[in-house]
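ok so dumb question maybe but i'm new to this and my supervisor (M.) told me to 'just get the structure for DUF2490 domain-containing protein' and walked off. so i did the thing. is this what she meant?? sequence i used:
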Amino acid sequence: MKNLILVNLLLALAYSGFAQTGRIIAPSTHAWYMENGTIKLNEKWLLFHDVQFRRADLLPEDQQLLLRAGIGYNLSSSIQIMAGYCFVQTYPYGDFPVRNQFPENRLWQQLILKAPIGRTTFINRYRLEQRYLGNSTTGSLANPRFENRVRYLGRVNIPLQKGDEYKLYGFIYDEIFINFGKNVGVNIYDQNRIAAGLGWKLDKKLSIELGYMNQMVQQRALQSNGKSVLENNHTLIASLVSNF
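this is what came out, is it supposed to look like this??
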């Protein structure tokens, strides 16, 4: 609960900043198709992967390709640490697109805290990223721009059937992104994602999830009229989640 209060305060400060400088709201409709999961090496160590095909206008246009991998360690049944590498390719999309598609190399570290209460599970994820961003003007990764970003995600998984062997569940989460460092533009508040949906356990190792996410993205540069652009992306999310 304290984390949710902190998130709301940060969002309130961010939006108050937008009101002072002026902004342009740019709505879009997207779809993210994702496959992610873990492979247990033993009781403590695990491998993680995440593949995401992010599409603009639901299907016709590329938005982003994301490939993430990492290795994790379970400190206990409720505490996990993880670190890894991520590659992202961002494409021109929307009403205020970048000039060219460009790549990004990213290192990341995270801490996950799980708190089951009855059959409901509360998940807190804290992630730190070191980002090496390519040039959107040239499309090259030469002389990348370095930025830091911190992310907090709060998620709740709620069983929707009786018994411990339930298959249908609901989920809701909110994630806030904050940039920091000397190379950050006007987007210190980078973005926020709030989502809700349904999941279905195919078996003990595979689940599918389908839901809606509202993604608010603050672009890093001001327009020629001095206003900032805030993307309001209405997004279909579809995931295959595995735990082997």
